[in-house]
Amino acid sequence: MATAAALRKTYFLVFGALLLLTLLTAGIAYVDLGPLSFAVALAIAMTKAALVMIFFMHLNHSEFLVKVFAGAGVLWLLHMLTFTLADYLSR
Amino acid sequence: MSPVVEPIIAPENLPPRVNYLNAGYGIRSWLLTKDHKRIALLYLASITFFFFIGGAAAVLFRLELLTPQSDLLQAETYNKLFTIHGLIMVFFFLIPSIPAVLGNFLVPMMIGARDLAFPRINLLSWYIFIIGGMFTLTAIILGGVDTGWTFYTPYSTTYANTYVIITAAGVFITGFSSILTGLNFIVTIHKMRAPGMTWMRLPLFIWAQYATSLINLLGTPVLAISIFLIAIERAFRLGIFDPALGGDPVLFQHLFWFYSHPAVYIMILPAMGVISEVITCFSRKRIFGYSFIAVSSLAIAVLGFFVWGHHMFVSSQSIYAGLIFSFLSMFVAIPSAVKVFNWTATLYKGSIIYQTPLLYALGFIGLFTIGGLTGIFVATLAIDVHVHDTYFIIAHFHYIMVGGALMGYLGGLHFWWPKITGRLYPEGWARLSALIIFVGFNLTFFPQFILGYLGMPRRYAAYPDEFQVLNVMSSAGASILGIGYLIPMIYFIWSMRYGPLAGPNPWNAKGLEWTTPSPPTTENFEHKPHITEEAYAYEVKEEKVVG
Amino acid sequence: MSDKSTAALAHQFDDPEQQLEASTLGMWAFLATEILFFGGMFAAYAVYRLAYPQAFAAASNHLDILLGTVNTAVLIASSLTMVLAVYSAQFAGRRAQVTFLLATLLLGTIFLSIKGVEYAHKFHEHLVPGAGFRFDGADPRHAAIFFSLYFAMTGLHALHMVIGAGLLIALTVMSWRGRFSAVYYTPVEMVALYWHFVDVIWIFLFPLLYLIGRH
User: Fold this and answer.
1) What residues of chain A, 56 to 85, have a C-beta less than 8 Å from chain B?
2) pLDDT tens per residue across all 547 residues of chain B
3) What are the residue ranges of helices labelled H in chain C?
4) Which of A81, B167, B294, B475 has its CB 3.0 to 4.6 Å from that of B139, i.e. a possible disulfide?
């Protein structure tokens, strides 16, 4: 049960980190960082998403194929955004 | 001449006493079935129904186009008819055709599995398909929809007073049916292969289905969301795509073609899979360049997502984006050509048997090549500006979708019909109808290349007098094509009862599906097969000498 | 215990491992689909935010940041209880499973209720796009696009939550009947994957919708 206890501890730690990041992103929104504001908000969101996916959704214990499919969805979304914006930004 | 049609009723040719067709009787045993083979037949019946609805619309507008004036149909009716034709044929016939019918039947059998990974989801996907179809049919019965199958804004938002939302709901719902089928295939191909069935031993049909499923999974949801946004824009008068309210109609085109260009490959890739199976079987030769054909399927699926802007060259898309999309589109030609060359090389010095499925396959190679090469024309930015939205485009994509995908589907249906029903179709009639379809198809669509090049725009009920001769040719071809489609319909139904018994392997084909009795039992295999050889080992003796 | 797992093995699979692997892969493939489903709206958001940054910032300021932050915390907490429900299926008993599932359901309901309150506020403030839309900022036309996207994105997200709540109810009943054990808990794990995914979507919606132009 030692591993079980460790697992449980990880879940609570991740939960704490997610709460802290939520407060951080809400607080930092009031600070004027110029164009960096968006980058910081997005970076925090990606960190949070990664924490949820790796620990809560058990990607850390998943087989390689599952990681590939998780990555494929994200990659395809980025591809769609890039190519669509490439049109709008070059008009 | 044909070595196989002699009806010998040897004991081994008798169908198993209990097979998947008679494992249960009554409507309940069909509507609640979880057997992938029965679900394939449910799809077969449904898409045939939709095919004839889409075909009926085509009959009406081809009749209208016999004369330059819009006399038989009013312009509004004409708009509704070509919309119905496009919607039904794309979403309710071509996209499900090979995956949902032949794929459903064959994927588990070809890899040595008892069923797909998720049989209940498989049945669910058929019900979702039917519900989506009901929505679309309801819209048609209520008075139709006139946006074109592309739902372009602002036609579909500001300027349509037809049943856009109901139709959109139908397409939205049906999308989930192909997502679920794709998901099922992907998991099945990854996780359910029989021992020894390594990736490089998979039939090429499976590779094609896998590539198709990837597109379904990663593309279809984007279509769903763009259709959803159109529906809420209409329902709540939002301005997401409406320029009057600050939105951008071109954004819809981006989202739409992000799916709908790859969707062309959803239609053609499975047909390519069928062609690979048929050609190697009827040349009695191992397929040439197995790994190249396999990888080219994946390459087409991936590249298909990088070219969607070539539908938008004249849409106000930036010229730089246009250039890049035009350039990237050329790359799709490479894997497509790889396939065509490899099929031709397979035929070279093969012991060719001109059985009906091979006739369709040969037709496919020729027509697909024309469709593909004209695809290079229209993907070239400068030429597309000239032929955009003309009949050249119509002809081009019909060579791909009818000359390619539909020929592949019919070829595959003939090839596996003995497996599906346990009975042979009449070979003479089948060859005749294959020939009629080939002739009718070319007569219908080749004149449209010329019409388009001369500048006849698509989607109009009336046209200048000088285009009449070519239009009459096209309509005449369409009637021949129509007859060509009716003949198989009749002899397939006839053969289910009166066709000679096929036996397990009437073509002496390789592949696990041919090791089972025809029709197969519910569990497909008596014992879990162990695979010890490559796919298409048609020349085992020679291979031993070489190896 | 093992009897139950055999009973839960569908005929097309050879063994429980194959079944679990297939289900996990299937669920992730479905989630990849979902990413692209929401992705279409993210693309629309990106295009319009780049085109009308001021209007988006002004419109975003009309959202309630306190309720948004609280809701984010509620959803994260529900993810924790969800993962603890899976943990209980693996290591603890039926009672713990049911408790955590119900806690997740409760937190999900709180999230939806707060969302409902926010929607009601927007309705009263005439910030729902359409005929009744009124916006006193500089660029009401493009602010309306922001609110169109806000309602489309949060609305579809909420719909996913409602579906998730339905799944949780079914799961709770199954769990109460003792269907899950350390050997077989695939449905719990699958619903959990879905629930966490809905959480991840919100993790992006929160900064994109609530936190622009606050300074």
Assistant:
1) 65, 72-73, 76, 79-80, 83-84
2) 445 555 556 676 788 888 999 988 899 999 999 999 999 999 999 999 999 999 999 999 999 999 999 999 999 999 999 999 999 999 999 999 999 999 999 999 999 999 999 999 999 999 999 999 999 999 999 999 999 999 998 889 888 888 999 999 999 999 999 999 999 999 999 999 999 999 999 999 999 999 999 999 999 999 999 999 999 999 988 889 988 888 999 999 999 999 999 999 999 999 999 999 999 999 999 999 999 999 999 999 999 999 999 999 999 999 999 999 999 999 999 999 999 999 999 999 999 999 999 999 999 999 999 999 999 999 999 999 999 999 999 999 999 999 999 999 999 999 999 999 999 999 999 999 999 999 999 999 999 999 999 999 999 999 999 999 999 999 999 999 999 999 999 999 999 999 999 999 999 999 999 999 999 999 999 899 999 999 999 875 544 444 3
3) 2-7, 16-51, 53-60, 65-91, 94-124, 140-176, 186-205
4) B167
Q: Does C61 touch chain B (CB under 8 A)?
A: no
Tell me if residue B160 falls in helix, strand or coil.
coil
Are C73 and A19 in contact (CB < 8 Å)? Answer: yes
Which residue among A80, A83, A86 sits closest to B222, beta carbon to beta carbon?
A: A80
Domain range for residue A75?
63-91
- A chain contacts of residue C32, beta-carbon cutoff 8 Å: 69-70, 72-73, 76
Question: How far B345 CA sits from the closest chain C CA (Å)?
Answer: 37
Q: Are residues A33 and A17 in the same domain?
A: yes
Looking at 1.20.210.10, 1.10.10.10, 3.40.605.10, 3.20.20.140, the CATH number of the domain B38-358+502-542 comes to 1.20.210.10
Phi, psi angles (nearest 5°) of residue B390: -110, 180
Assess C164–B contact: CB distance below 8 Å, yes or no.
no
Cβ <8 Å between B309 and A79: no
**What residues form DSSP beta bridges with B457?**
B390
Q: Write the ipTM.
A: 0.95
Same domain, A39 and A70: no
Coil, strand or helix: which one is B3? coil
Q: Residue C71 CB: number of other CB atoms within 10 A?
A: 23
CB contact under 8 A, A37 and C215: yes
Residue of B nearest to C41 (CA): B225
Contacts with C185 from chain A: Cβ below 8 Å: none
- In whole angstroms, what is the distance from residue B335 CA to residue B339 CA? 6
**What size, in residues, is chain C?**
215
